[in-house]
Amino acid sequence: MKPGDRVLDVGCGVGGSAVWLARHGAQVTGVTVVEAQLRQARARAAGLAATFLLQDYMALDFASASFDVLWHIESLCHCPDRAAYLKQALPLLGDGGRFACIDLFPTGDAGAIEGLEDMRQACAFGPLVSADRFVALLEEGGLVVETEDLSDRVQRSMRRVHDSARKAAARARLEVLFGGSPAVLSRAEGAVACADAVLSGQLAYRYVGGRRC
User: Fold this and answer.
1) Whole-Å CA distances, 68 to 28, 45, 84, 90, 99
2) Which of 38, 80, 108, 139 is the most buried (most CB within 10 A)?
3) For residues 139 and 135, what is the distance between their CA atoms, to the nearest angstrom?
4) For residue range 123-148, what is the model confidence (pLDDT) as tens digits?
5) Is the pTM of this model over 0.85?
6) What value, to the nearest 5°, has the Cα angle with vertex 191 and ends 186 and 169?
């Protein structure tokens, strides 16, 4: 990306990547459906060219060709319908606009992934779509697509996530016995299942990008 590029950070969370982009000269708009994330993102981006909105990315409210880049960091795994999302999102790109996504993609039958229901319940996963299918959807939308499997680069991180989530789950089980929140246990178990799936190769951590020519 170049300084001055208009970037839509889709599912921006607490604004980490949006702040990084703004510090490197991009004009960033981030959208999230979580009010607590919105407050944190706005506080982090004070003084930077970054705007954050409470908006569902399945119903984006922007004019056509409003952005040079659609940016997604681990946000499309929550998407309920990727074809429907792309149908209304890709027109937001102008000529030469770029699409960038880093996310989890099943390497085989998504329904056979161990712990999938834990991930859905705890991590709000939508239907998981293979990388090949997602590439096809982008190509149908008129983009020239490139992709790269980054799973080898995140093994150490995934092991750390796995270990810390197992410890958190063990604590949460004890706390539930004494009236603690089952939701905390559910989130920890979902994180363990997700890390397991990446470490076992059932889920790939992959970059998918494209450009409108």
Assistant:
1) 10, 20, 20, 11, 9
2) 38
3) 6
4) 889 999 999 999 999 999 999 999 99
5) yes
6) 55
